[in-house]
Amino acid sequence: NIGESQPIIRQLDDAAINRIAAGEVVERPASAVKELVENALDAGARRIEVAIANGGKTLIRVTDDGCGIAGTDLPLALSRHATSKIDGSDLLDIHTFGFRGEALPSLGAVGRLNITSRVAGQDAASISVEGGKMSPVKPAALSGGTIVELRDLFYATPARLKFMRSDRAESQAIGDVIKRLAMAEPFVGFTLRDVSNGGEGRVSFRADAETGDLFDALHGRLARIIGTEFAENALRIDTSREGLHLTGYAALPTYSRGSSVAQYLFVNGRPVKDKLLVGALRAAYFDFLSRDRHPAAALFIECDPHLVDVNVHPAKSEVRFRDPGMARGLIVSGLRHALAEAGHRASSTVAG
Length: 352
Ligand code: ADP
Ligand code: MG
Fold this sequence. Notes:
Elements: H1 14-25, H2 29-42, E1 47-53, E2 59-64, H3 74-77, H4 103-110, E3 112-118, E4 125-130, E5 133-134, E6 138-139, E7 145-151, H5 158-161, H6 167-184, E8 189-194, E9 202-207, H7 214-225, H8 228-232, E10 234-241, E11 244-251, E12 263-267, E13 270-272, H9 275-284, E14 297-303, E15 308-309, E16 320-321, H10 324-350
Helix pairs in contact: 1-4, 2-6, 6-7, 9-10
The site of magnesium ion (MG) has 5 residues, from helix 2.
């Protein structure tokens, strides 16, 4: 009966568009935390405090001491495709976590969102959005930085709410997100607090800002997050190849794991879950580990942003290298070299 009732094409309204986009950007509370903490880092924060309740389902509050948002800009911050981070002329020249201008409008479409912020030298202001409807900007009290509060995530999308896991599982996923970002930014202090049940709030993770040079700071942070045993058994990696730079720490084969949980990979400061890089890590240890053991490592690839596309998925956890073989080769040869050298050192010590 096509032709009988001809379908009508309509333009969706902003609220519907934002709810659709939110489905990709905000999968669960941990993805909301990731977006908000990344915003704080992009704002140059040195201290970031995250408070959650009920696994982030009823409350996520991120407080930072970054540059703040001007009161007049608050409605723009909540508008789709509005960003202070790129001008759109070069989508491969990206130096910030964010650039799509989607997180805040998406969060405002699926939860109750309030932003209070203050730019140095200006008055503090706040704005709220609920069900996609923005409030007027109001005067507020805040000494500096930004507080973003997200309540009742997915209250407007019950189907999504059903997919949430237990408070415990969601809290753990949030902890994971914060730990990865804390590894990427060792000079920033992070706190995660659970304020469920009206209590004072149990601190479930704290990492004070590290000091010293970057390697020392990273080493300290990895000891804090992965464990001192990892840090004591980790080889320092620092190698380059054709414009790609690999740094970080990789554990000796003797400190291997029965699962791949202690594998942390970063590309240009961004935590990624990338099959290519995980495969390269495995391949590097191939001669040193039995098949049921997994290497532990925190590795950072730095390169010209033009050599890697981070705009593969809205959550930006996958990347696409212009030359995947080169990225793989860098990891495999860099780690093999370090492992072989460590082996030599160990055997020459034994030999006296
Ligand atoms: P994006 O991060 O991709 O730019 P968002 O929707 O996450 O998009 O944020 C929109 C804008 O709001 C940002 O570009 C930034 O200017 C501002 N903003 C968001 N969070 C903060 C924050 N914590 N501190 C300062 N500015 C912020
Ligand atoms: Mg953002």
